[in-house]
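re: that chain from earlier
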Amino acid sequence: MAGMVSGARMLQAAGRALRWNTRQSQRAAMLARPLSSTPLRRSQGGSDIERGSQLHGFVVEDVQSVSELKLKAVRLRHQRTGLEWLHIDRDDANNVFSIGFNTSVTDSTGVPHILEHTTLCGSERYPVRDPFFKMLNRSLSTFMNAWTAHDYTQYPFSTQNGQDYENLQNVYLDA
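^ sequence. v structure.
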């Protein structure tokens, strides 16, 4: 376990390197897996991503190496929707995905926390009562959770299996 780096630590280091703050974003996604195994790879292959590159509707806004964690952080923005994507390119067995939303509140009713629990309660594409809890015991995930902080809500998961990653990401993004 000495060589393992937590997803939260990677996100913090990559965010600092890019001066990226998810709390300022309406929509944010974070992904930690090699660029060669994601939809955001260049068709000619590899990690030749540089500022200004256009990838599947995204524009690369910044690229930074974080040598102490052996990773490359890539900040992208979707041209049509404005979605921010922080991609962490690192040679790691875990494939991590997280999507977060700004959920600032003006009162103490707990609406963001209630919405956190109802968001992953099925959709048209996945019409089951509670897919989140069904996924917990049917997935090969190494981590799966959701939480609401004082001004944002986050939905992360990680898995070492590529097909499981694609399945979980589809459920999370459909919710």
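The helical segments are 7-18, 111-119, 131-138, 162-174.
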